[in-house]
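Posted in: Structural Biology > Protein-Ligand Complexes

Title: Requesting predicted complex, glutamine in pocket

I'd be grateful if someone could produce the 3D structure tokens for the following input. Sequence and ligand are given below.
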Amino acid sequence: MTIRQMMKKWIRELSKSTTAKLDVELAMCKVLDVTRLYIHLNLDEEISKKDENRIEALLKQRRKGRPMAYIIGKKEFMGLDFFVKEGVLIPRPDTEVLVEDIIQQAKKIDNPLIVDIGTGSGAISVSLAKYIKDSRIYSLDISDDALEVGAVNAKNNEVEDKITFLKSDVFSALENEDIKFDIIVSNPPYIRRLDIEGLEVDVKNYEPSLALDGGEDGLDFYRKITEDSTKFIKDNGILGYEVGYDQAEDVKKIMIQNGYGDIRILEDLASIQRVVIGTKI
Ligand code: GLN
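-- Reply #1 --
Done. Output follows.
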């Protein structure tokens, strides 16, 4: 079968996926060890029977709903490659809005000291370490899987010297430390508990509920992190969150109640209020 024929067949087979063509390309890239550009330029190349079988094995997993990032073991975020596996949330493009803004804010700070609460795959921490000169990052997570994957990503992206990974329930690992941060950032679990059942199969059946479940109203972690943050933030320090589609105003209120001001709400590319950022005053 040629690349083109296989592409057509599997785009049909994956009709439930909104990203069928990309899914097929990524499976081919993985097995054939080529780039997507190579696929585009060599559509009439024959695929060996052995490779065809290997590609089909991956795409059959996709047909059941397993996210492509777990199948091929990687996801791109902020132009960097991240290793992912079940047990850590797959980095989302929405989160790039938060990272892009923090990178801009950090330019005004010398040697910024940053903490990322609930670091997961390390997507936020590694990108900040990579793109903010002279930054130092503490990456905290309660999940051992996350800490392990985060460390691999820091190493793969050559920023392991800038990041300290700590097992921590929100700020617990820093409780006895005298440390204050210029920037506190988090994409915490924020899905309302009762809404988890309603998430799409790909998310619900494969991604860790530990990274999704934000308690009854989805705001548990915003309350906890914001309250505890006041012990760990410098004057004029920045607190930045990713939030769920209808949570921006609630999170803004929580921040104001805890002494934050100059609050900005940023939209993602789907025009959803996705990021809330404030300054400690
Ligand atoms: N953006 C994720 C989703 O909608 C949720 C991530 C989170 O809870 N932080 O599936």
